[in-house]
Specification:
The protein is of the alpha/beta class and 492 residues long. Helices cover 42% and strands 14% of the residues. The protein has helices spanning 15-28, 41-48, 52-64, 81-84, 95-98, 133-144, 149-152, 162-171, 183-195, 210-217, 238-245, 266-279, 302-305, 334-348, 353-364, 367-393, 419-429, 458-484; strands at residues 37-38, 68-71, 75-78, 119-120, 177-181, 201-206, 222-229, 232-233, 249-252, 282-286, 312-316, 328-332, 399-400, 408-412, 431-432, 434-435, 448-452. α9 (183-195) packs parallel to α10.
Length: 492
Protein backbone atom coordinates (compact mmCIF):
# COMPACT_ATOMS: atom_id res chain seq x y z
CA UNK A 1 0.00 0.00 0.00
CA UNK A 2 1.30 3.45 -0.89
CA UNK A 3 2.41 5.49 2.17
CA UNK A 4 0.03 8.44 2.52
CA UNK A 5 2.18 11.52 1.85
CA UNK A 6 2.16 14.77 3.80
CA UNK A 7 1.18 17.63 1.48
CA UNK A 8 1.44 21.36 2.19
CA UNK A 9 -1.48 23.39 0.83
CA UNK A 10 0.38 26.62 1.66
CA UNK A 11 3.45 25.76 -0.40
CA UNK A 12 4.27 27.57 -3.64
CA UNK A 13 4.77 24.14 -5.22
CA UNK A 14 1.54 22.80 -6.80
CA UNK A 15 -0.11 19.95 -4.90
CA UNK A 16 0.18 17.55 -7.84
CA UNK A 17 3.94 18.24 -7.98
CA UNK A 18 4.24 17.56 -4.25
CA UNK A 19 2.31 14.31 -4.62
CA UNK A 20 4.47 13.28 -7.58
CA UNK A 21 7.65 13.95 -5.58
CA UNK A 22 6.44 11.97 -2.54
CA UNK A 23 5.42 8.92 -4.58
CA UNK A 24 8.64 9.10 -6.59
CA UNK A 25 10.64 9.14 -3.34
CA UNK A 26 8.73 6.08 -2.09
CA UNK A 27 9.58 4.24 -5.30
CA UNK A 28 13.23 5.21 -5.16
CA UNK A 29 13.70 4.26 -1.49
CA UNK A 30 11.98 0.92 -1.96
CA UNK A 31 8.85 1.67 0.06
CA UNK A 32 6.97 0.89 -3.14
CA UNK A 33 8.45 -2.18 -4.80
CA UNK A 34 8.53 -2.93 -8.55
CA UNK A 35 5.28 -4.55 -9.60
CA UNK A 36 3.32 -3.19 -6.64
CA UNK A 37 -0.12 -1.86 -7.52
CA UNK A 38 -0.83 1.76 -6.64
CA UNK A 39 -4.33 2.99 -5.79
CA UNK A 40 -6.65 4.23 -8.54
CA UNK A 41 -6.79 8.02 -8.83
CA UNK A 42 -10.28 8.22 -7.34
CA UNK A 43 -9.34 6.08 -4.35
CA UNK A 44 -6.17 8.02 -3.54
CA UNK A 45 -7.99 11.34 -4.05
CA UNK A 46 -10.56 10.22 -1.46
CA UNK A 47 -7.90 9.16 1.02
CA UNK A 48 -6.04 12.49 0.68
CA UNK A 49 -9.07 14.76 0.33
CA UNK A 50 -7.97 15.91 -3.12
CA UNK A 51 -9.62 16.42 -6.48
CA UNK A 52 -9.17 13.34 -8.66
CA UNK A 53 -7.68 15.56 -11.38
CA UNK A 54 -4.83 16.50 -9.04
CA UNK A 55 -3.93 12.86 -8.44
CA UNK A 56 -4.24 12.08 -12.17
CA UNK A 57 -1.76 14.87 -12.96
CA UNK A 58 0.78 13.39 -10.51
CA UNK A 59 0.30 9.93 -12.03
CA UNK A 60 0.81 11.32 -15.53
CA UNK A 61 4.18 12.75 -14.49
CA UNK A 62 5.20 9.45 -12.89
CA UNK A 63 4.23 7.54 -16.01
CA UNK A 64 6.09 10.02 -18.25
CA UNK A 65 9.22 9.36 -16.17
CA UNK A 66 8.79 5.60 -16.52
CA UNK A 67 8.23 5.11 -12.79
CA UNK A 68 4.75 3.59 -13.11
CA UNK A 69 2.95 1.72 -15.84
CA UNK A 70 -0.80 1.74 -16.50
CA UNK A 71 -2.61 -1.37 -17.73
CA UNK A 72 -6.14 -1.11 -19.08
CA UNK A 73 -8.56 -2.90 -16.76
CA UNK A 74 -5.89 -3.69 -14.17
CA UNK A 75 -4.71 -0.32 -12.87
CA UNK A 76 -1.26 1.22 -12.41
CA UNK A 77 1.83 -0.52 -11.10
CA UNK A 78 5.34 0.47 -10.06
CA UNK A 79 7.63 -0.18 -13.03
CA UNK A 80 10.73 -2.38 -12.89
CA UNK A 81 13.71 -0.10 -13.67
CA UNK A 82 15.67 -2.98 -15.17
CA UNK A 83 12.90 -3.74 -17.65
CA UNK A 84 12.53 -0.18 -18.91
CA UNK A 85 16.16 0.86 -18.93
CA UNK A 86 16.05 3.38 -16.08
CA UNK A 87 18.55 1.59 -13.85
CA UNK A 88 22.15 2.68 -14.53
CA UNK A 89 24.41 0.05 -16.04
CA UNK A 90 27.03 -1.40 -13.68
CA UNK A 91 29.65 1.29 -13.20
CA UNK A 92 27.59 3.76 -15.26
CA UNK A 93 26.35 7.21 -14.33
CA UNK A 94 23.10 7.80 -12.50
CA UNK A 95 21.81 10.48 -14.81
CA UNK A 96 18.82 11.45 -12.68
CA UNK A 97 21.28 12.40 -9.94
CA UNK A 98 23.16 14.69 -12.34
CA UNK A 99 20.23 16.70 -13.69
CA UNK A 100 19.90 20.17 -12.19
CA UNK A 101 17.13 21.72 -14.29
CA UNK A 102 13.54 21.50 -13.10
CA UNK A 103 11.00 19.47 -14.98
CA UNK A 104 8.10 21.15 -16.71
CA UNK A 105 5.47 22.44 -14.32
CA UNK A 106 2.68 20.91 -16.37
CA UNK A 107 1.64 17.28 -16.58
CA UNK A 108 2.27 15.83 -20.06
CA UNK A 109 -0.27 16.94 -22.62
CA UNK A 110 -2.47 13.96 -23.52
CA UNK A 111 -1.61 12.56 -26.94
CA UNK A 112 -3.75 10.24 -28.99
CA UNK A 113 -2.37 6.76 -29.43
CA UNK A 114 -0.82 6.17 -32.84
CA UNK A 115 -2.93 4.35 -35.33
CA UNK A 116 -6.22 5.59 -33.87
CA UNK A 117 -8.93 7.39 -35.78
CA UNK A 118 -9.33 9.98 -33.03
CA UNK A 119 -10.79 13.34 -34.05
CA UNK A 120 -8.34 15.63 -32.29
CA UNK A 121 -9.08 19.22 -31.29
CA UNK A 122 -5.77 19.41 -29.38
CA UNK A 123 -3.34 21.20 -31.74
CA UNK A 124 -3.49 24.90 -32.62
CA UNK A 125 -1.84 24.65 -36.01
CA UNK A 126 -2.67 25.02 -39.70
CA UNK A 127 -4.36 22.22 -41.57
CA UNK A 128 -1.83 20.05 -43.41
CA UNK A 129 -4.36 19.38 -46.17
CA UNK A 130 -4.17 23.08 -47.08
CA UNK A 131 -0.38 23.18 -47.49
CA UNK A 132 0.47 24.33 -51.06
CA UNK A 133 3.24 21.80 -51.59
CA UNK A 134 3.70 22.40 -55.32
CA UNK A 135 4.13 26.15 -54.80
CA UNK A 136 6.50 25.52 -51.89
CA UNK A 137 8.62 23.11 -53.95
CA UNK A 138 8.88 25.78 -56.64
CA UNK A 139 10.09 28.34 -54.08
CA UNK A 140 12.70 25.87 -52.80
CA UNK A 141 14.00 25.22 -56.32
CA UNK A 142 14.21 28.93 -57.08
CA UNK A 143 16.30 29.53 -53.96
CA UNK A 144 18.63 26.56 -54.43
CA UNK A 145 19.12 27.32 -58.13
CA UNK A 146 19.67 31.04 -57.46
CA UNK A 147 22.99 32.89 -57.25
CA UNK A 148 22.78 33.36 -53.44
CA UNK A 149 22.50 29.64 -52.60
CA UNK A 150 26.14 29.27 -51.52
CA UNK A 151 25.98 32.29 -49.22
CA UNK A 152 22.69 31.07 -47.72
CA UNK A 153 24.36 27.79 -46.71
CA UNK A 154 27.12 29.64 -44.85
CA UNK A 155 26.88 31.02 -41.31
CA UNK A 156 24.91 34.24 -41.29
CA UNK A 157 24.13 37.16 -39.03
CA UNK A 158 22.55 36.44 -35.62
CA UNK A 159 19.97 39.06 -36.59
CA UNK A 160 18.71 36.79 -39.36
CA UNK A 161 18.76 36.65 -43.14
CA UNK A 162 19.19 40.27 -44.21
CA UNK A 163 16.88 40.18 -47.28
CA UNK A 164 14.08 38.69 -45.18
CA UNK A 165 14.59 41.33 -42.49
CA UNK A 166 14.35 44.06 -45.13
CA UNK A 167 11.20 42.49 -46.59
CA UNK A 168 9.52 42.30 -43.19
CA UNK A 169 10.40 45.88 -42.33
CA UNK A 170 8.97 47.12 -45.62
CA UNK A 171 5.96 44.86 -46.12
CA UNK A 172 4.95 44.21 -42.51
CA UNK A 173 5.39 47.91 -41.73
CA UNK A 174 7.89 47.23 -38.96
CA UNK A 175 9.23 50.72 -38.32
CA UNK A 176 12.01 49.64 -36.00
CA UNK A 177 14.68 47.00 -35.84
CA UNK A 178 13.87 43.30 -35.77
CA UNK A 179 15.50 39.96 -35.01
CA UNK A 180 14.62 36.74 -36.84
CA UNK A 181 14.16 33.89 -34.35
CA UNK A 182 13.64 30.16 -34.38
CA UNK A 183 9.89 30.63 -33.98
CA UNK A 184 8.10 32.70 -31.35
CA UNK A 185 9.13 30.32 -28.60
CA UNK A 186 12.78 31.32 -29.01
CA UNK A 187 11.76 34.98 -29.04
CA UNK A 188 10.03 34.50 -25.69
CA UNK A 189 13.04 32.67 -24.29
CA UNK A 190 15.40 35.48 -25.35
CA UNK A 191 13.11 38.11 -23.84
CA UNK A 192 13.01 36.14 -20.60
CA UNK A 193 16.82 36.00 -20.52
CA UNK A 194 17.16 39.72 -21.21
CA UNK A 195 14.53 41.14 -18.87
CA UNK A 196 14.02 38.78 -15.93
CA UNK A 197 15.89 37.12 -13.09
CA UNK A 198 14.75 34.32 -10.76
CA UNK A 199 12.18 35.75 -8.37
CA UNK A 200 11.04 38.53 -10.70
CA UNK A 201 7.38 38.78 -11.69
CA UNK A 202 5.82 38.64 -15.16
CA UNK A 203 2.14 39.30 -15.85
CA UNK A 204 0.43 36.97 -18.32
CA UNK A 205 -3.13 36.26 -19.35
CA UNK A 206 -5.08 33.69 -17.37
CA UNK A 207 -5.79 31.22 -18.99
CA UNK A 208 -2.68 31.23 -21.17
CA UNK A 209 -0.83 29.15 -23.76
CA UNK A 210 1.40 26.83 -21.65
CA UNK A 211 4.54 27.31 -23.74
CA UNK A 212 4.46 31.05 -23.06
CA UNK A 213 3.96 30.61 -19.33
CA UNK A 214 6.53 27.87 -18.89
CA UNK A 215 9.40 29.68 -20.57
CA UNK A 216 9.33 32.09 -17.61
CA UNK A 217 8.34 29.60 -14.92
CA UNK A 218 11.25 27.28 -15.74
CA UNK A 219 13.64 30.21 -15.23
CA UNK A 220 12.35 30.76 -11.69
CA UNK A 221 10.22 33.79 -12.62
CA UNK A 222 6.94 34.31 -10.74
CA UNK A 223 3.95 34.12 -13.06
CA UNK A 224 0.91 36.22 -12.11
CA UNK A 225 -2.24 35.84 -14.17
CA UNK A 226 -4.46 38.67 -15.39
CA UNK A 227 -8.02 37.41 -15.98
CA UNK A 228 -9.19 37.04 -19.57
CA UNK A 229 -12.83 37.77 -20.38
CA UNK A 230 -14.91 38.17 -23.54
CA UNK A 231 -12.88 41.27 -24.46
CA UNK A 232 -9.51 39.74 -23.72
CA UNK A 233 -7.20 40.77 -20.90
CA UNK A 234 -8.86 42.65 -18.02
CA UNK A 235 -7.18 46.05 -18.33
CA UNK A 236 -8.93 47.39 -15.22
CA UNK A 237 -7.10 44.80 -13.10
CA UNK A 238 -3.67 45.96 -14.27
CA UNK A 239 -3.00 48.98 -11.98
CA UNK A 240 -3.68 46.95 -8.84
CA UNK A 241 -1.54 44.04 -10.01
CA UNK A 242 1.30 46.31 -11.09
CA UNK A 243 1.30 48.12 -7.73
CA UNK A 244 1.27 44.84 -5.81
CA UNK A 245 3.59 42.68 -7.90
CA UNK A 246 6.02 45.17 -9.52
CA UNK A 247 6.26 43.08 -12.71
CA UNK A 248 9.15 43.27 -15.15
CA UNK A 249 6.98 42.48 -18.17
CA UNK A 250 3.41 42.11 -19.37
CA UNK A 251 2.93 39.54 -22.15
CA UNK A 252 -0.40 39.85 -23.95
CA UNK A 253 -2.11 38.42 -27.06
CA UNK A 254 -4.64 41.09 -28.10
CA UNK A 255 -5.96 39.27 -31.21
CA UNK A 256 -7.56 35.80 -30.98
CA UNK A 257 -5.93 34.91 -27.69
CA UNK A 258 -4.85 31.32 -27.10
CA UNK A 259 -6.74 29.45 -25.63
CA UNK A 260 -9.92 31.56 -25.49
CA UNK A 261 -9.96 33.18 -28.94
CA UNK A 262 -10.85 36.53 -27.30
CA UNK A 263 -9.88 39.83 -28.97
CA UNK A 264 -9.31 43.14 -27.21
CA UNK A 265 -11.39 46.05 -28.62
CA UNK A 266 -9.64 49.21 -29.74
CA UNK A 267 -10.52 51.12 -26.56
CA UNK A 268 -9.07 48.35 -24.38
CA UNK A 269 -5.85 48.35 -26.40
CA UNK A 270 -5.50 52.09 -25.99
CA UNK A 271 -6.22 51.84 -22.27
CA UNK A 272 -3.60 49.12 -21.85
CA UNK A 273 -0.96 51.31 -23.49
CA UNK A 274 -1.90 54.24 -21.25
CA UNK A 275 -1.47 52.08 -18.15
CA UNK A 276 1.84 50.74 -19.42
CA UNK A 277 3.12 54.25 -20.15
CA UNK A 278 2.04 55.57 -16.75
CA UNK A 279 3.55 52.59 -14.93
CA UNK A 280 6.68 52.35 -17.11
CA UNK A 281 5.86 48.71 -17.82
CA UNK A 282 7.45 46.78 -20.68
CA UNK A 283 4.74 45.28 -22.91
CA UNK A 284 5.38 42.23 -25.10
CA UNK A 285 2.68 41.77 -27.73
CA UNK A 286 2.19 38.25 -29.06
CA UNK A 287 0.66 38.95 -32.48
CA UNK A 288 0.86 35.58 -34.22
CA UNK A 289 -2.87 35.14 -34.96
CA UNK A 290 -3.80 38.62 -36.21
CA UNK A 291 -3.64 37.70 -39.92
CA UNK A 292 -6.22 34.94 -39.42
CA UNK A 293 -9.32 37.14 -39.11
CA UNK A 294 -12.47 35.55 -40.54
CA UNK A 295 -15.13 38.06 -39.44
CA UNK A 296 -15.28 41.76 -38.63
CA UNK A 297 -12.78 44.50 -39.37
CA UNK A 298 -9.07 44.54 -38.67
CA UNK A 299 -7.80 46.24 -35.53
CA UNK A 300 -4.43 47.99 -35.19
CA UNK A 301 -1.89 46.10 -33.14
CA UNK A 302 -0.51 47.48 -29.89
CA UNK A 303 2.72 48.07 -31.77
CA UNK A 304 0.93 50.23 -34.33
CA UNK A 305 -0.93 52.17 -31.62
CA UNK A 306 2.08 52.78 -29.39
CA UNK A 307 3.34 56.30 -30.12
CA UNK A 308 6.38 55.79 -27.88
CA UNK A 309 7.65 52.81 -29.88
CA UNK A 310 8.33 50.92 -26.66
CA UNK A 311 6.05 47.95 -27.26
CA UNK A 312 7.94 44.78 -28.19
CA UNK A 313 6.12 42.60 -30.71
CA UNK A 314 6.62 38.96 -31.67
CA UNK A 315 5.20 37.42 -34.83
CA UNK A 316 5.68 34.24 -36.83
CA UNK A 317 5.02 32.52 -40.14
CA UNK A 318 3.96 29.36 -38.31
CA UNK A 319 0.22 30.05 -38.13
CA UNK A 320 -0.21 31.27 -41.72
CA UNK A 321 2.34 29.06 -43.50
CA UNK A 322 4.39 26.11 -42.28
CA UNK A 323 4.92 25.63 -38.53
CA UNK A 324 7.76 23.17 -39.10
CA UNK A 325 10.02 25.83 -40.61
CA UNK A 326 10.27 27.71 -37.27
CA UNK A 327 10.69 31.26 -38.54
CA UNK A 328 9.48 34.08 -36.31
CA UNK A 329 10.68 37.52 -35.33
CA UNK A 330 10.67 40.11 -32.58
CA UNK A 331 10.61 43.84 -33.32
CA UNK A 332 11.38 46.74 -31.02
CA UNK A 333 13.82 49.56 -30.30
CA UNK A 334 17.29 49.05 -31.76
CA UNK A 335 18.93 48.91 -28.33
CA UNK A 336 16.67 46.00 -27.32
CA UNK A 337 17.15 44.11 -30.60
CA UNK A 338 20.92 44.51 -30.32
CA UNK A 339 20.99 42.94 -26.89
CA UNK A 340 18.64 40.13 -27.99
CA UNK A 341 20.95 39.43 -30.94
CA UNK A 342 23.89 39.07 -28.55
CA UNK A 343 21.96 36.55 -26.48
CA UNK A 344 20.89 34.68 -29.58
CA UNK A 345 24.46 34.43 -30.87
CA UNK A 346 25.53 32.87 -27.58
CA UNK A 347 22.86 30.18 -27.89
CA UNK A 348 22.75 29.21 -31.59
CA UNK A 349 25.05 31.56 -33.58
CA UNK A 350 22.27 32.19 -36.10
CA UNK A 351 18.98 30.77 -37.32
CA UNK A 352 18.60 28.56 -40.37
CA UNK A 353 19.07 30.86 -43.37
CA UNK A 354 17.73 28.34 -45.89
CA UNK A 355 14.27 28.29 -44.28
CA UNK A 356 14.29 32.07 -44.13
CA UNK A 357 15.34 32.42 -47.77
CA UNK A 358 12.67 29.97 -48.96
CA UNK A 359 9.96 31.76 -46.97
CA UNK A 360 11.17 35.07 -48.39
CA UNK A 361 10.87 33.72 -51.93
CA UNK A 362 7.48 32.22 -51.09
CA UNK A 363 6.34 35.65 -49.88
CA UNK A 364 7.96 37.82 -52.57
CA UNK A 365 6.39 35.72 -55.33
CA UNK A 366 2.89 36.35 -53.96
CA UNK A 367 2.42 32.68 -53.06
CA UNK A 368 2.30 33.37 -49.32
CA UNK A 369 -0.51 35.91 -49.61
CA UNK A 370 -2.51 33.58 -51.87
CA UNK A 371 -2.03 30.80 -49.34
CA UNK A 372 -3.04 33.09 -46.46
CA UNK A 373 -6.25 34.01 -48.26
CA UNK A 374 -7.05 30.31 -48.75
CA UNK A 375 -6.33 29.76 -45.05
CA UNK A 376 -8.72 32.56 -44.13
CA UNK A 377 -11.47 31.16 -46.37
CA UNK A 378 -11.02 27.69 -44.89
CA UNK A 379 -10.77 29.09 -41.37
CA UNK A 380 -14.02 30.99 -41.80
CA UNK A 381 -15.84 27.79 -42.80
CA UNK A 382 -14.26 25.87 -39.91
CA UNK A 383 -15.11 28.54 -37.37
CA UNK A 384 -18.73 28.56 -38.53
CA UNK A 385 -18.77 24.76 -38.32
CA UNK A 386 -17.41 24.60 -34.77
CA UNK A 387 -19.75 27.31 -33.47
CA UNK A 388 -22.78 25.63 -35.06
CA UNK A 389 -21.71 22.21 -33.77
CA UNK A 390 -21.24 23.56 -30.23
CA UNK A 391 -24.74 25.04 -30.35
CA UNK A 392 -26.17 21.81 -31.67
CA UNK A 393 -24.40 19.17 -29.58
CA UNK A 394 -23.03 20.47 -26.26
CA UNK A 395 -25.21 19.97 -23.17
CA UNK A 396 -27.60 22.71 -22.16
CA UNK A 397 -25.81 25.15 -19.88
CA UNK A 398 -22.51 24.92 -21.76
CA UNK A 399 -20.84 28.24 -22.60
CA UNK A 400 -18.26 28.91 -25.27
CA UNK A 401 -16.44 31.89 -26.75
CA UNK A 402 -17.27 33.17 -30.22
CA UNK A 403 -13.97 34.28 -31.75
CA UNK A 404 -13.78 36.18 -35.03
CA UNK A 405 -10.56 34.49 -36.10
CA UNK A 406 -7.56 32.48 -34.94
CA UNK A 407 -7.56 28.77 -34.23
CA UNK A 408 -9.18 28.18 -30.84
CA UNK A 409 -12.31 28.61 -28.78
CA UNK A 410 -12.90 28.05 -25.08
CA UNK A 411 -15.71 25.86 -23.76
CA UNK A 412 -17.08 25.72 -20.22
CA UNK A 413 -19.15 22.61 -19.59
CA UNK A 414 -21.97 22.83 -17.03
CA UNK A 415 -21.34 21.87 -13.39
CA UNK A 416 -20.42 19.38 -12.08
CA UNK A 417 -18.58 18.14 -15.20
CA UNK A 418 -14.78 18.07 -15.01
CA UNK A 419 -13.13 18.22 -18.45
CA UNK A 420 -10.02 16.37 -17.23
CA UNK A 421 -12.01 13.48 -15.81
CA UNK A 422 -14.19 13.37 -18.92
CA UNK A 423 -11.22 13.21 -21.32
CA UNK A 424 -10.39 9.47 -21.10
CA UNK A 425 -13.98 8.51 -21.91
CA UNK A 426 -14.11 11.07 -24.75
CA UNK A 427 -10.92 9.60 -26.21
CA UNK A 428 -12.32 6.07 -26.01
CA UNK A 429 -15.38 7.34 -27.88
CA UNK A 430 -13.19 8.88 -30.59
CA UNK A 431 -12.54 12.55 -29.79
CA UNK A 432 -9.81 14.46 -27.94
CA UNK A 433 -9.29 17.99 -26.63
CA UNK A 434 -7.16 19.79 -24.05
CA UNK A 435 -8.68 20.32 -20.57
CA UNK A 436 -8.53 23.80 -19.10
CA UNK A 437 -6.01 22.88 -16.41
CA UNK A 438 -3.22 22.90 -19.01
CA UNK A 439 -3.82 26.63 -19.50
CA UNK A 440 -4.54 27.77 -15.93
CA UNK A 441 -2.29 30.21 -14.11
CA UNK A 442 -4.22 30.67 -10.87
CA UNK A 443 -7.89 30.40 -11.87
CA UNK A 444 -8.95 26.77 -11.97
CA UNK A 445 -11.97 26.02 -14.18
CA UNK A 446 -12.64 22.26 -13.95
CA UNK A 447 -15.29 22.35 -16.66
CA UNK A 448 -13.17 24.30 -19.16
CA UNK A 449 -11.55 22.91 -22.30
CA UNK A 450 -9.96 24.23 -25.50
CA UNK A 451 -11.16 23.26 -28.95
CA UNK A 452 -8.59 23.90 -31.69
CA UNK A 453 -10.62 23.82 -34.88
CA UNK A 454 -8.36 25.17 -37.65
CA UNK A 455 -6.73 21.84 -38.46
CA UNK A 456 -9.98 19.93 -39.02
CA UNK A 457 -12.37 20.00 -42.00
CA UNK A 458 -16.00 20.93 -41.21
CA UNK A 459 -17.29 17.36 -41.45
CA UNK A 460 -14.80 16.16 -38.83
CA UNK A 461 -15.63 19.12 -36.60
CA UNK A 462 -19.30 18.15 -36.76
CA UNK A 463 -18.56 14.49 -36.05
CA UNK A 464 -16.19 15.30 -33.19
CA UNK A 465 -18.61 17.67 -31.46
CA UNK A 466 -21.42 15.14 -31.85
CA UNK A 467 -19.31 12.60 -29.94
CA UNK A 468 -18.22 15.11 -27.31
CA UNK A 469 -21.77 16.32 -26.83
CA UNK A 470 -23.11 12.79 -26.40
CA UNK A 471 -20.42 11.78 -23.91
CA UNK A 472 -20.78 15.04 -21.98
CA UNK A 473 -24.55 14.74 -21.77
CA UNK A 474 -24.38 11.13 -20.56
CA UNK A 475 -21.89 12.05 -17.84
CA UNK A 476 -23.87 15.14 -16.86
CA UNK A 477 -27.05 13.11 -16.49
CA UNK A 478 -25.24 10.48 -14.40
CA UNK A 479 -23.49 13.08 -12.23
CA UNK A 480 -26.68 14.98 -11.46
CA UNK A 481 -28.54 11.77 -10.68
CA UNK A 482 -25.74 10.78 -8.31
CA UNK A 483 -25.85 14.21 -6.66
CA UNK A 484 -29.58 13.93 -6.14
CA UNK A 485 -29.07 10.52 -4.52
CA UNK A 486 -26.23 11.83 -2.35
CA UNK A 487 -23.67 9.60 -4.10
CA UNK A 488 -20.27 10.39 -5.59
CA UNK A 489 -20.44 10.38 -9.43
CA UNK A 490 -18.37 7.76 -11.20
CA UNK A 491 -16.87 8.42 -14.64
CA UNK A 492 -15.85 5.25 -16.44
Amino acid sequence: MIPLPQLDANSDEPIYRQLHARIKASIQDGSLAPGERIPPTRELAGLLGLNRTTVAAAYELLEAEGLIRGHVGRGSFVADPNEIGLAPAPGGLDWEDRFVSNRAQDPPVPVAARGTDLISFTAARPAADLFPLAEFRAACREVIDGPAAVDILQLGSPLGYAPLRAFLQENKRVGEDLLITNGCQQALDLLQRLFTRPGDCVLVEDPIYPGLRNVFAHAGVRIVGVPVGPDGLDVEALPRLIARERPRLLVVTPSFQNPTGATMPLAARQALLRVAREQQLVVVENDIYAELRYQGGDLPSLKQLDETGDTLQIKSFSKVAFPGLRVGWVSGPRSVIGRLAELKQWTDLHSDQLSQAVLLRFAESGRLESHRQRMVEAGRARLQAVLAACERHLPQGSRFTRPQGGMNLWVRLPDPLDASELLPRAQRAGVSYLPGRYFAVSRQEPGALRLSFAGLPPEQIEAGLAILGRVSQEELTAARAAQSAGLAPVIV
